[in-house]
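Researcher: Good morning. I'm working through a list of sequences from a screen, and I'd like to move beyond sequence-only analysis. For each chain I'm collecting a predicted structure so we can compare shapes side by side. This is the next one on the list. No need for commentary yet; just the structure.
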Amino acid sequence: MQKAEGRRQKAVGRKQKPLTGRISTMVQEHLRSQGYRVNRSLPTAFCLLPTIFLLLTAFCLLPSVVSAQQVVDKMVATVNASGQTRCQVCLITYSDLLWQLALQPDAVLVNPSSDELNRTLNLIIDQRLILQEAEKLPSIAPTSDEITAARDELVKAFPSQAEFQSRLQRVGLTAEKLNEIIDQRVKIEKYLDFRFRNFVVITQTEIADYYRDVYVPRLRSRAPGQIVPTLEQASPSIEKTLTEAKIETDTDAFLDNARERAEIVMLSPV
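Model: Good morning. C-alpha cells for this chain:
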C-alpha cells in the first residue's frame, strides 16, 4: 500500500521555520475541531501559544491511565501551511503519529521511543507531500470499492480482526477517521501510479541482466539443488521487481525535491 514507506528516512527538510502569526488561523481551526470555542478576534498565533502550551502542560500532568477518547492531542508540525486556512493535510498532530503506529502490526503503542516517533513523523511528512500533489488531481479520487478493498487488505496484516480493532481503540482511531486515512493512502497509491508507474519501461536486456546477475545466484544460494526457472519463466516476476525498484527510486527523487521546496514547521518535539 505505502510505496513511499520504502524511501530512505532523512532529517526534516531544510526550510523548517519557527512558528509565526501566519498560522494563527490554522491553530484556531484545530481548536475548533477539538470542540473549543474560538472567537475570531483572537490575537495572532504568537500571542495564543502561551495559552495553548499551558493547556497542553496541564493535561500532560493528568494520570497516564486514561481511555482512548481522553488522549490529549498536540500539534507536532505543519507542511506547507503558509497562507492555508482550512488545509486538512497541512497539520500533523500527535494523534496522527499514534494512528500511523497503530496501523503497523509490529509497532509499539505504549510509550513509543522518540526515535520511533520521529521516524513516523518523517514518514507522515512524506505522505503529506505526496498527498498535497495528489489532491490537485480530482480524477484519482478513490471509489468506495477501492477504499473497502484497501481496508480489507490492511486488516489481513494483523493476527485477527479483534487485534486490529483493539489497536484502533487504544489510540482512539474511529471508523470514520480510519476511512479518511485509507482514502488518503489510496490517493497516494493512485498518484504514484499516475506519476511514475505509467512511465516505467523495463527492457528485455535489463531483465536478462537481472536474471543472470541476481536472480539465479540468489536462488542457488537460498535453495541449493532446486531447479532454477528459465529466463522466460522468471521474466514476469523480474519485471515486477525492477518496476517497483524504479518507482521507489523515482519516488525518492520526487520527495527529496519536494522537501527542498517545502515549508516544514516543527511545532513540538517528539
